[in-house]
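Self-study notes.
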Amino acid sequence: MGKTAYQKLENEEEKEKKVNPKRNANIFSKITFSWMNKIFVIGSKRPLEEQDLFPLLDEDKSDVLTDRLEKEWGKELKKKEQGKRPRFWKALMRVSPWSEYFCIIMLVLTDMANRMTLPVLLGFLISYLMGIRDLGASFKYILPTGICITSLGRNLAQHHYQNRSALLGMRFRAATTGILYRKVLRMSKSKLAKISSGHVINLVSNDIQRLDLATQNLFASLRSPFDLVVLGILLWILIGWQAVTGLAFALILIPYEAEMTGWVAKLRMESARVTDRRLEVMNEIISGIRAVKMYAWEWPYRDAVKKIRRAEILIMRKIYGILASFASLQHTYDSVICLIAFVTLVFTGTRLTPFNIFTMVGLLSENRRSLVYGLTDGMQLIADCFASLDRIEHFLLIEELANGKNGRHSKKKDSFKDQKPKEEGNYIKATDLTCHWNGLSESPVLSNINLELKDSKLALITGPVGCGKSTLLLTLLEELMPTSGEIQRKGSIVYVPQTAWVFSGTVRENILFSKPYDEKRYKETIEACDLTKDIERLPDGDETTLGERGASLSGGQKARVNLARAVYADADIYLLDDPLSAVDAKVGKHIFETCISGMLSNKIRVLVTHQLQYLKNADFVMILDSKGTIEHEGDYFQLQESGLDLDSIEEELRIGNEKYYAIHGVESTTKKESEKPKEPDIRETTSSKPVAGKGLASVTEDRSVGTISAGLYWRYFRSGLHAVLLILLILLFLVAQASIISPNLWLVHMSRMKWVEQKHKVNLIIYGALVGGALSLAIIRGLLYYITTLRCSETLHDKMVLSILKSPVLFYDTNPSGRILNRFSKDIGIVDEFLPPTSLLALQYILQTLASMCVTCSTNYYAIIGVIPMIIGFLLINRYYLKTSREIKRMEAISQSPVLAHIADTLEGISLIRTYHMENKFMEKFNEVQDHRSQIWFLVPHSARWMGIRLDFVCTAFVAIATFSGVSFETDAGTLGLSLVYAISTVGQLQFAMRQTADVENMMTSVERVMTYTELEEETGYHIKKKAPSDWPTTGDVKFENVSLQYYEGGPQVLQNLNISIKGGERVGVAGRTGAGKSSLVSALFRMPDPTGQIVIDNQQILELNIQNARRVISVITQNPTLFSGPLRNNLDPFSNYNDAEIWNVLDQVEMKDKVADLPGELYFTLSESGNNFGVGERQLLCLARALLNKNKIIVMDEATANVDFNTDKSIQETIRSKFNNCTVITIAHRLNTILDYDKVLVMEKGRAMEFGHPDELLKNKDGLLTELVRNQASALM
């Protein structure tokens, strides 16, 4: 991988000097998290940087955890042999040592004991003050002291078990992500073709996020049933059996919550599938953005994504409808339980006293979170987690490559050696191969293929489009396992795919591919692949940084870099999938003679090509028919003897050069080749000078610093709700909170009543009405809030999609696809799933805390003495904390992008990664970016606990003031009970509220990141309202006037002062060496980006028109054909403007009718991601069919037939002549014979128009550039 992809944090010497302070912290420091002080000191002075991070502990490293999980998963897989189902969650649980679980359980029990003890002490204190119990004068202060100590102990235990749970979640996440990545490295190309990249990205981002969150809440949820039992026992002992009747409500909740949790889990699975589809479409848009823009399909794809998003939001609304009932119980369930218990007490003749009221209220208040959260949100999180674990488990159970990733050929190699013990040297042999892509239900792609090659043999494989040539190479590579037959080979093997794979690194890094640098071999390689001059012209030579997917290079240059990588690898067997199709004849001849037949002459080579002029040079030729069977095979002379008319094939190759031969004679070809030019070639003398400019490096991901402003919250909520409605929602929250505390205020009032008054039905009805009102308002509050946040999320997502579609292609060339997808996966996932419940919980607890302080101070004025310093302390600690935690969260949000980008790169280049045995290197790089993420995430829970413990000290001081002041001064027992219940609850509530608030602010960084992408720089043409007349263009005149083009600021001029005029209806061919600027001409015409100068179509200056209006009138078929997943018909006619008959007609014209008719579903056959279930040549033909269907006046074809055979090419050229006879056709071609009968030919070099005119006139100039190009091609084809 390139240096620009993932930067190292520091050199190894610096890393060794740093030690994680947690490792050497003393016991006090560990209890209070004081070892985190250093990071907070730095964060308070300046934004944190990567060098400030603590080194990752060895036990938290990705490779250690993944190895451990893989070992345990291997044990689970052995269960399949016994007929049992392997369970991934069991393997995952065994990743962490059991001692860790024991520590967490002991801390949970400590927390539980303190929570139960605290209300009991409060009850004893109230009974003492009431005179019920005579405990001695000293207990007047011993009990308050015990309350304070127990309160602090409870919180310390809670912080430490939650911190350990969070770290456990981090380890689970790292281990699961690691095993998923290793699984990808072991999956065949055929299996991965059936799984969208969106599915893999969703597993890594959202599913593992749920696993992480559920782990943090696992133990809180599991303790809930035990809390319920202990609570029932205490209530029975302290108050009586009547108090336990209220817990019946909690028992009733359990089956309701279990049922609803099951529904939520099912809805989550359904939502995950929709999210997979959304991410799949977004990934296709990102990778095929040029096609989307050229066809002006931004709005159809915006609508397609919006439609999927609507379905996703609809499911989310159902989920949040259920969760609203859960959220309402957070602060009302204890009121319902108390209502049932107290009504039972009254009806059974037991008077309501401050003791039984506030002992029960205190116990329920203290255990509110563990009971309600555990039985509602906790169960829901665990159910979501198991749904995600099922998805991960299903992925891990997909069949892998035979014999694993290491030495997967060894068994076959040995068996072959046993059969032929005397055989020496390298070989590859295929016996009776039959292959299917989609199972036996469909026709085989290859049938009964036999091939055997030994040392230094060159096999040439050819045949019509779609006959299975590329499939044969993938089968030989064992990326597609044959249905029947056997493959045997000896020797290392490399593969050059038809679609070049170039990553964002330097040219040298792409060629070396982590191999040691050998200067001699490197120079030989770039010379053999004809890259020397291209590299010299780059700004920094071979150290020039390429953009995403090699955006700085032309198609031909990418193909040659791809080939150079294979050549430098120095393997024994080479599988070459049509590497000559993307280059011109001269370069192709150079590569064939110098590279394939020269530098690789001592290797076994299997070359798939349509360049039939090389038949004579092959040791073995295999010609496949359209059904994937061998039609002819043997060497050149054997083919002649078999009756194959090779003379007619050779004659076909010469067609198109007649004009050259007629003008210069046949002899001149050889003559010109042998003669040295007397004058230096302009191109040769200037090409050695580097072009001014700089490389196209990936930009650093944006990261905001500083506080999350109130304006961000306002813009977030305003994106989903009108300002007036937003104010009404705030008022609803206040009214609902007042209604929630009203039942307890009424209880204080009832405790002062006489027994006769307490029994009065009116008082009980009022109490019941207050509880019912609180519950109803809480449900309405939660439901409306969730609806609002979902509307916000939906609006922001739609804006982000629109902004992405309007962004210039430079944005995509400088931002890794994983980085962009991270906004649509993790960030939107947080905004969808985690921000709404967390923010609602934060708001509820903030309001509850404020209410608690108000009640405490109104009933005990001395408590105000503690409130003011407590609020000041909270604000100071929180402010100090947020300076650091905010930056940690921002860094953490960014840290996932390299992980996703690395996975996306791996999915795209998986065949090459395995071919070059780079699995370990890529795994090391993955571990590096994963460890970097864990290194940042390590600080997230620790920083939260650092704050929480300090807030608890402040809260404990407040409780002490409230308790001792209440005891010291004579106070009514009921009033004191209410005051102390709310004061004690403030301890947990306030720090939890602040922690939730901090979590919300951290999650708002995702909103911030999404909003950043809603405000990206747009292509200027979208805002232009001017449109051409509806019948424009009528003739198709095209003029380029002083047109220059620069892809990015500071980059080289790829077009320079271009001045040409094309009349309507003319067919114009564009010729030139690879990298001459031919495709840049297309970019300028489509304003990608806007060029300088003027481009005029039928008297309309297109730079003054709306950009979509200008693009829509031009049909284009590019050298990288782009299809999208979904029905084939939608790819041809996304607007449904044509009937089926018209579509079948164009398919017939491009010779794809029979192929489509054989597909299941025919026109409605579902294409896989990026149309990968069609070959490159077939995709080009389908794109051509799309252009024929649109019937535009201007047609641009950029190497549109580069990947098809000569017969298909000839047929297509006839179709172009007949069907586009009234259209302006601009054709970029390396096969010059296809454009020599055009009306004009434009010859380009270095972005300049060197020659432009009728080909007859240009060919008369024996020193002309077109003449030289044709001469080179004629020489190459002879």
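Second protein, same conventions, sequence then structure:
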Amino acid sequence: MSEAVTTPSPFVHLRVHSEFSVVDGIVRIPDLIKRVAKLGQPAVALTDLSNLFGLIKFYKGARGAGVKPIAGADVWLTNDEDPAKPFRVLLLVRNHQGYLNLCELLSRSFLTNQGKGRAEIRREWLQGQEGLIVLSGGRGGDVGQALDAGNAVSALALARQWALMFPGSYYIELQRAGMDGDEAYTQAAMRLAAEAGLPVVATHPVQFLDEYEFQAHEARVCIAEGEILANPRRVRRFTKEQYLLSSEEMARRFADVPSALANTVEIAKRCNLSLVLGKPRLPNFPTPDGVTLDDYLVQLSEEGLEKRMEFLFPNVAERESKREQYYERLRWECKTIIQMGFPGYFLIVQDFINWGKNNGVPVGPGRGSGAGSLVAYALGITDLDPIRYDLLFERFLNPERVSMPDFDIDFCQDNRERVIDYVKEKYGRAAVSQIATFGTLGAKAVVRDAGRVLDMPYMFCDGLSKLIPFNPMDPWSLERTLKDEPAFKDRYEQEEEVRALVDLAKPLEGLTRNIGMHAGGVLIAPGKLTDFCPLYCQAGQENSAVSQFDKDDVEAAGLVKFDFLGLRNLTILDWAVRYVRQFNEDKRDFDVMALSLDDPAAYKILCDANTTAVFQLESRGMKELLKKLRPNTFEDIIAMLALYRPGPLESGMVDDFVNRKHGRAAVDYFHSDLEATLKSTYGVIVYQEQVMLISQIIGGYSLGGADLLRRAMGKKKPEEMAKHRELFEQGAKEKGHDPDLAVKLFDLMEKFAGYGFNKSHSAAYALISYQTAWLKAYHPTEFLAATMSSDMDDTDKVQIFCRDAQDNGVEVLPPDVNFSGYRFEPVADKYTEKGKPPRTMRYGLGAVKGTGQGAVEDILRARKEGGPFQNLFDFCRRVSKHAVNRRTIEALIKAGAFDTIEPNRAAMLASVPTAMEAAEQAARSANQSSLFGDDSSDVVAGELAKVAPWDLHKKLTEEKSALGYYYSGHLFDAWRDEVRQIVPMQLARVEPQRDLQWMCGVLASVRVMMTRRGKMVFAVLDDGTAQVEISVFNELYEKHRNRLREDQLVIVQGKVSNDDYSGGMRIVADQLYDLQLAREARAKSLRVKLNGAADAARLRQMLNPFRAEPENGIPGVPVDIVYTKNNFLCTVRLGEEWRVRMADTLLANLSAWTKPNGVEVTY
């Protein structure tokens, strides 16, 4: 007997919320499985809130750990009597049919029955749903709520209804989880179960794994609900006891109902779901009149190759000489594709790509390894001849390693949706969806969120969050920040609040926070998607559903994904080509795909590093590399894109490549057989394809085997490498090569394999780089207008492109309501009259902040209907006041878009309210036709307000608010004349020196950094000749905080030295001045000219408010009065007590009184 006491009754947890419940639950799936295995429980269920997001991860993990996975979901059940209070019910999957039904139910709840952030299931949908086990939902279920309300009768009726719906598969749930009223409910539920003859089952609603995690879980719930932890009125739905209890503990809690424990194991035995993972199921591609997929692939490939050959080799004799080589490769590829069972995949992809090309959707030339396939080139999937560039099919589809091929396809950003829509129409809307991504709480976000639920001030959390370094390629965790970021660590150790915040944030870091949509992936299922996985969508976005599994899990479930990526540069190329056709008589059929790849003008753009806006070559580092490399062949561009990455740059490969190209280093091909392979890269191993070819030529590998070798090298597993090394030496020996050479080559390849880049991807993108460079060389106006139009919202970029256009000899005309379109557009000019490409473009109205596409379209409509606008009143009368509001009109005035109608922007701005009022009045009177039939609708053009025009400074700052930068002039011009008397040195001429130097300019940007010694500021000064960065240390910054703002004029006394680190200059500020302080520091005197009629009392009255305070360390400047009367002239210096501060107001007042030019500051 004693033995039975020690073995606890076995128990299985059937109710677990993981992090994928999103609104609550912090259980991480791998930890859950480890814990269950450690507690010796045979099985566990994952029942997230109305979703199966984590199912595949859970299924794989549990199977791997020898724990039986039970799939299920905790679902909301609509309550028609009180929609704000839905019930809960727990559905568990018994078999595959049950899984399909659950997928269907969950998808239906998201797509058709969402409200208040919940997807709900309706009771009638459950009718006849086989393969599911239903648990009553405890106190959240309809039966439980009736019992809690003391309605035993209705509770019994409901329970019997459920039992009829799910005969033998409905259980009453008992819970003792530490909530008030649990015990009363449990007793009532047991009485009900006995009366209705229903089984009971003990569940424990698990929300976290360990008891101490309760606080972290509460924080998670508060983050989701926007609540504050300490708020006394917050509804507390969870208890400290909702951690994963051991079987012993559960047995102790339910010692009085042993059957409730036994039934958990019973249910676990009844739930047997097996999923087939990793077997791709392609959708069915319709072929014409019963041709098989295999034959259709061959037929289309051969037809396509003929067309491509005619384009590649217009000369018949040359074409015939190449035919055998091309057809042999085509036959081998088709054979491999058919053998591996992927013809359907190729046919589906070529179908939607060719639909796109025939329907005006720009498609990229290819990307990734797919460009290595000749079949893909023949079918129109890619646009690069793989044979010409040594691109390998095996790098894409390796017959020795079966895995799904993967074409990434670039579409133009604006039309990507059209292609997806075509696919939906073709394969059925129920078969196509996009893919979910799970957003997680990163370190920066979790600090802000934790601070919010602790009710800490926003600036405090924001400051702390900003101390965490931002690096998207290698994100910083809180652990790493505490270790490697001294400022963060110091605050953690010294400040109580910081410690409280970070300790709360740590356990939440990395949890799933929200569901997004994968940027490119599109799923196409055979039949309907819900046969594979459930769907999710956000409320109100029913037509953009996503799978509930992420991209890896979707593939495991057998669905095939197609990557539809949006590439902005294709949109730019498309617009540029349209502009070229429109503005050049001789290029009406211009096709960017037909350019020859050896045009010297295009390479000149690259060699001069004139590559702003050129695809992939616009960064500073790329420009440096271009200047060194001076590319002059298409192969050079391919190599550039492959080499410009951290690995090759650090390893010295890049310098080696450059030196070999320019003959400063010897080119070595290792063996004469390798010359063909390595010639294009001057003997440097740059591409993975070269690694594969060397293995084939020297080591006797098949290309499939060589692909496996390349993968092994990338993974760097020593034991694998040792095996391959032997194979390679053996193969080299059999081919009669020198064994020493083989060892040397193998070592070399092993070293570079980590850096080797996929040449197919480089080559495809190099094509776009070349096309953009060619357009910039021959059609800079058309090309840059398209580029600026695609980035209109980003005014910083518009400014860069605008300057670049001017540097390339293109005039950019200002925005104008009578001439501009929505986008930047080329304009016919004196060059187009001579049949040359235009050299002028017009600013797009869409790039003015505060306008939208709708507003601009309405302005264009009015202009088209009634001709140019005469004045502001005419403009307001003709545009729709709903589309074009006051803010839009004001922004257009500030941007200078009305300058050709009336250059006084101040007067225009002041008149907007009157003009809009007049327009409304006109509209009203037009509606009431006049009694006397006179034409009263002609409203006289109103009078513009009498307002003095803005000075240059005001005009430019207003312009910046509308355009994002100073377009018509430089802000510095507003002060130039006076400032140059104080500081003659231009920034472009600043050189390192031992002494302090004076510099001045307008602050273009101000960045504050936290360092160990407090704040440090990097400010960029700009005086129109150059921009330089100056560093300002903490003490100086604190003293001049309000002077260090963007667009302020600043005069600096600073030390200029060489900066060895960046190779530039380093400038450290010693003193800062604004204009007034600089005048006071540098002026010798203030001279005022007065004549005989001068009034001494008036002078005293003017100077008095501005007297200096020498006793407070403000010495001021002496005043000289230059007095003329009856041809006598004398200069009188006023007494020391009349020294003055050099404020703008004083100078302005004196000037107004003594005009013209009666005031002079001497330096």
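Instructor comment on the second fold: The radius of gyration is 38 Å.
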